[in-house]
């Protein structure tokens, strides 16, 4: 079992309340929720006919895409750093 303190916070994402439980700080969890809300609203502005489920899926797809690009960039930078050290 983990000894980490669990934090619980209720956040508002796209007009719906969700309770999030995690070991991150409440301010971190609030920031994550705010970013998800902003991304959902951005997608809705560009695609006003989409329903909530499609907005949520597109938000997830966009977020994973951004994550993968950052991972690729980090791996590239790690390789560059290895080359500089070697």
Description:
By secondary structure, this protein is of the alpha+beta class. The chain has one domain. It has 2 helices and 2 strands, in the order ββαα. The protein has helices at residues 26-46, 52-85; strands at 7-13, 16-22. Strands 1-2 form a two-stranded antiparallel ribbon. Helix 1 (26-46) crosses helix 2. The radius of gyration is 17 Å and the shape is flat.
> How much of the sequence is in beta strands?
15-25%
Low-confidence stretches: none
The value of Rg in angstroms is 17 Å
Proportion of helical residues: 55-70%
Overall residue-averaged pLDDT value? 95
- Counting DSSP E segments of at least 2 residues, the number of strands comes to 2
Order of helices and strands: EEHH
Q: How many helices?
A: 2
State the end-to-end distance: 41 Å
List the helices and strands and how they pair.
Layout: E1 7-13, E2 16-22, H1 26-46, H2 52-85
Antiparallel strand pairs: 1-2
Helix pairs in contact: 1-2
Provide a short characterization of the protein structure.
This protein has 86 residues and is of the alpha+beta class. It has helices at residues 26-46, 52-85; strands at 7-13, 16-22. Helices cover 64% and strands 16% of the residues.
């Amino acid at each position: 079992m983990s000894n980490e303190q669990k934090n619980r916070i209720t956040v508002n994402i796209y007009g719906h309340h969700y309770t999030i439980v995690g070991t991150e700080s409440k301010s971190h969890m609030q920031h994550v929720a705010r970013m998800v809300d902003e991304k959902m609203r951005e997608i809705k502005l560009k695609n006003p006919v989409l329903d909530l489920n499609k907005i949520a899926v597109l938000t997830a797809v966009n977020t994973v895409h951004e994550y993968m690009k950052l991972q690729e960039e980090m791996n590239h930078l790690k390789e560059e750093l290895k080359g500089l050290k070697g």
